Amino acid sequence: MGWETIIKSRREWSTIPHLYDYGEVRATFSWEKSRRELDGLPDGGLNIAYEAVDRHAAGPLRDHLALRWIGKNGEVRDYTYGRLEELTNRFANVLQRLGVGKGDRVYVLAGRIPELYVTALGTFKNRSVFCPLFSAFGPEPIRARLAIGQAKVLVTTESLYQRKVAGLRASLPHLEQVLLVGDDHKPTHVPGTHDYHWLLAEAGDRFTIAPTDPEDMALLHFTSGTTGAPKGAVHVHQAVVAHHMTGKLALDLHKDDVFWCTADPGWVTGTSYGIIAPLTNGVTSIVDEGDFDAERWYRILQEQQVSVWYTAPTAIRMMMKAGLEPIRKYDLRSLRFLASVGEPLNPEAVVWGQQAFGQPFHDNWWQTETGGIMIANYAAMDIRPGSMGRPLPGIDAAIVKRTEAGGVEEVAEVGVQGELALRPGWPSMFRAYWNEPERYQKCFVGGFYLTGDLAKKDKDGYFWFVGRTDDVIKTSGHLVGPFEVESILIEHKAVAEAGVIGKPDPVAMEVVKAFVSLKDGYEPSHELQRELLGFARARLGAVVAPKEIEFLPSLPRTRSGKIMRRLLKARELGLPEGDTSTLESA
Ligand code: ATP
Ligand code: MG
């Protein structure tokens, strides 16, 4: 701990934050009351798409811009809430016509194209289950995920289908319907498939959502595969209460906001905050089809007048690498709130936000399993760089230790690390790991959901991420979290990224080893190696500092941008690499 605090004054507020006072909002918060902020279906049920689209289309937001899509080549397409209602009604009717019903799995394999958003919302309307797949997956990860979830429908593009799916059809007996979006808007005529747009045009534009139980399954989301084979987390319609409230309280979405979540819907962030939360909150959401490119991003921020921006540490580190100069060319004064998720956000990156954008990045923590943000730095709260913030209203988080009897006990002392645990009961908690009931059960011990992450809590209730339980290093009787070591290394001017592992050692059990990639303009050398070892030792002390440093051109990452330490370790030890389906360059 011990990082300086970024103190924010009320004068910085251009709008009054929804969470204007942490203690007060937390004290008066309840999930029951939150549910009443949504409309609910006329029959009393709860359906994600109704809250995201239909209720706005029926009111003053009908002609408000819901989604602005920016194509790779700069083409722009706009969708109002009214238009989204019509398109998603059509897609729900298509599913009906194809005999796809409640609980059937509808997968999408596509980049960030408008049809993905229409499919997700239309699927919710039909009470089928939406399952997104990242478009850069190769055939085997696609096949495995389609088979695990017994996909009945797949929506994809003609070129992705031809390249990755056509050859798999025979091995996927459950896959009854394949809908293709033509490349360059052209109609498609591929045997064994339907043309998506043709079906949509033929379908009726009215649809009445059937009674939806809040516990009806809505989403199947595969985890990032950072620590092992990806797991399929199941979420229900009730999750929308958490999507909505976290969008409001943690991302501080207000009606006039232009919001940009840069995550791909292949990952949970791109669904919870790239599709659902901005729409339930009635804001305008930007979708960029293009890949990361610092200048492209700054241009979008400027041109679209983005006010709330939600991105990830990996992108922030890449922007840091590109330096401050490109940013100075753009007028980014519309930005009023910056947030980050997915990996620990190094203090250096928080502070860099302040230099680059005049405001810090607000880190928040959650997982595929939690469905929505659980711990966050809020607009109205001072930031302690390196901390994930404090638990959301309605969320009880604790640091626990496993006991020998197989239970857990809460760690009462401040600053002591243990496993991060949450009291179950929030609306977007996962309801199952698909087809893995035992694995699911194992996550719940002594009245807690155990997250698999290590953290500590300071005296004011701020949580500090230490590492994943799988990644933590045991060296000479100490437990060392990789994050602390990586954060120090990237403070060095030559270092772009760092990944830290424990390397088995006969004396110390493990020694800390760091893999480092360098910023442009720096070359690996023995001198730099020595300098970095000394730099880290001076700041971390001999026990925690790395004993070895190895330079890599880049670090292995998941497609959602997370450093895969398990792979660094497997490669170091010459062990099998395990499931690499989500590896970026796979
Ligand atoms: P898998 O479970 O398959 O190994 P994964 O855990 O990376 O993959 P996700 O659910 O996408 O899959 O990621 C959630 C995890 O990401 C968290 O458990 C945590 O380890 C990490 N994480 C997310 N946000 C933060 C954050 N703000 N600070 C630190 N770690 C974070
Ligand atoms: Mg996980």
Report on the structure:
- The chain is of the alpha/beta class.
- Helix content is 29%, strand content 23%.
- The strands form 6 sheets. Strands 2-1-11-10-12-13-14-15-16 form a 9-stranded mixed β-sheet.
- A hairpin with a 5-residue loop joins strand 1 and strand 2 (76-80).
- Helix 4 crosses helix 8 and helix 9 packs across helix 10.
- The mean pLDDT is 95.
- It binds adenosine-5'-triphosphate and magnesium ion.
- Magnesium ion binds at residues 223, 227, 367, 452.
- Magnesium ion (MG) binds at residues 223, 227, 367, 452.
Oligomer: single chain
Mean pLDDT level: 95
In which range does the helix fraction lie?
25-40%
Largest sheet: 9 strands, mixed
Structural class, by secondary structure, is alpha/beta
Number of strands: 28
Specify Rg, calculated over alpha carbons.
23 Å
CATH architecture of the largest domain: 3-Layer(aba) Sandwich
Q: Please state the overall shape, judged from the principal axes of the Cα atoms.
A: globular
Number of individual domains: 2
**Roughly what fraction of the amino acids lie in strands?**
15-25%
State the CATH class of the largest domain: Alpha Beta
Unreliable stretches, pLDDT < 50, 5 or more residues? none
* Order of strands across the main sheet: 2-1-11-10-12-13-14-15-16
Q: Which hetero ligands occur in this complex?
A: adenosine-5'-triphosphate, magnesium ion
Helices and strands in order, then pairings?
Blueprint: H1 22-28, H2 31-35, H3 48-57, E1 65-70, E2 76-80, H4 81-97, E3 105-110, H5 114-125, E4 129-134, H6 139-148, E5 153-157, H7 158-165, E6 177-181, E7 194-195, H8 196-202, E8 217-222, E9 232-236, H9 239-249, E10 258-261, H10 268-280, E11 284-288, H11 294-303, E12 308-311, H12 313-322, E13 337-340, H13 347-357, E14 361-365, E15 375-376, E16 390-391, E17 397-402, E18 408-410, E19 418-422, E20 432-433, H14 437-442, E21 444-445, E22 448-457, E23 463-468, E24 473-475, E25 478-480, H15 482-489, E26 495-505, E27 509-518, H16 526-540, E28 548-551, H17 565-573
Parallel strand pairs: 1-11, 3-4, 3-5, 5-6, 6-7, 10-11, 10-12, 12-13, 13-14, 27-28
Antiparallel strand pairs: 1-2, 8-9, 9-20, 14-15, 15-16, 17-18, 17-19, 19-22, 21-22, 22-23, 24-25, 26-27
The structure holds adenosine-5'-triphosphate (ATP) and magnesium ion.
